[in-house]
Amino acid sequence: MSLPTIWVFGDQLNREIGALATATPTTHQILMIESSAKISSRRWHVQRAHFIVASMRKFANELRDAGFQVDYRHAPSMSEGLRDHVAEFRPDEVLVTEPNSYASRMLVNKLNVRVVRSDQFLCHPSEYQAFLGSRKSIKMEDFYRWQRKRLVVLMNGDEPVGDRWNFDEENRQPPPKTGHDRWPQPHTYALDETDQAVVETVRGNCWGEFPIGQWATTRQGALERLAFFVEHVLPVFGEHEDAMLKSNWHLAHSLLSPYLNNGLLLPGEVVEAAESAFREGKVPLNSAEGFIRQIIGWREYIWNCYWQWMPDYAEMNALGATRELPPMFTDISKTKMACMTSVLTGVNSRAYSHHIERLMVLGNFALISGINPQQLTQWMWNSYVDAAEWVMVPNIIGMSQYADGGMLATKPYASGGAYIDRMSDHCKGCAYDRKKRTGSDACPFTVLYWDFFLRHQDRFVKNPRVARQVRAAQQLQDSDELQVTAVSILRKLDNGEL
Ligand code: FAD
Ligand code: SF4
Q1: Can you give the pLDDT at residue 169?
Q2: What does the mean pLDDT of the chain come to?
Q3: Which of 220, 327, 331, 370 has the most CB atoms around its CB within 10 Å?
Q4: Class for the domain spanning 125-309
């Protein structure tokens, strides 16, 4: 028998959480498993596969430098890795911090390991039950305010700092006409030997542009990005949070999601850095609040919805959307739509797009064209550097595809070309005309938006948040011609000719 083992998963790379928080080199040994079944299970974007695996290997090296004995195992599967570790090292027991995915929790429950409570998130699912209490309707805004009070973030006693909880109105401005270089460029990180070795390991089954150091793979790099964000970007985070520009892929977004999701950063330290900058007068309240809302509000809400509703939730398809993922998602040359081309090109180059591009371009398009939500989930899972099942499933099935019939969002996030034109610079120069809803150059967003509300009028006319749009669709003089145009657009979409 030897020291107890702590088995660390690839999205738990932090010394401060769960079982690792109290571990020392004299009390515990470490197990990490690089599973070839996982790496070859999908056609990953190469930057995503690289980010996950390189971060794991470097974290293992940091633990070794700190004196831990680390068994970093290449194994066909997680359970085989564990079995071989136990046979070789004979630990007293194996501890694992509650894993972050449903499948991994099911797996560890079947194995001979002791599961330790995770504090990687600020609101554990057991604490969320206190929020749910006997509430009949569950809203993110209520959860967010509950979190603000409970965690004492941006509070003056019982009241919110600035006497307001919400600055959404200030934070939803279209992109500015000029000054598109106002948002500082994120740094890139030099790739080292570990990075090169990882790319060689994963490249065989991957797609997308190779890493150029866009995404740091160490805690040091993640902390540098956090510091850069708070000092240079957070002051302007708020106002254009919902804007999109083809010439600028990051605007004032933090680019912190990969690190929050694999543990290199913890949500508490990110919130603390943002709040301190506000208290020191370096960041205006609308920006600090807008950012903190994303972390302690949306992110933690999504996390808890996942645990509340899995596993059936991932399979929901309330609108009966059956269209196969169209060719443009895997081959950008299959569309002339300027907005889709811009966002899909960004995914290919960086394995990233910001929230509004995910929700109001890719997600919106999938919703109104009836793409199967599970296929969209699989594609996003393969494609994004920050993808994880707990965050994708509620964001896709719930927020963006309304496939849960309204459990998470109170309305479908459907919009036409007018929204994209107002919030971006994509429409100028596009092959389609965002004002047209009939004819060969009619904007697919505009046509499919109206067609969506006609197709689903029975369901949505009863929803007070979108009933007005349904009635407007019903009153269109050219609705027959519009629906003929929609059929032709969907045929072209399926054939890769849109
Ligand atoms: P910022 O705009 O700087 O926001 C700050 C942080 O807030 C993010 O890093 C993230 O941790 C958190 N956050 C903001 N919105 C959300 C949200 N809706 N859900 C959870 N966290 C949020 N996020 C992922 O981390 N992984 C995904 O795979 C993912 N898939 C998504 C798919 C769709 C269809 C949609 C609509 C959203 C998805 N999101 C996902 C949420 C959000 O788009 C990303 O977290 C965000 O774009 C990451 O970029 P950022 O760090 O620059 O974010
Ligand atoms: Fe997208 Fe339509 Fe605008 Fe073209 S006109 S960029 S398809 S919204």
Answers
A1: 81
A2: 95
A3: 370
A4: mainly alpha
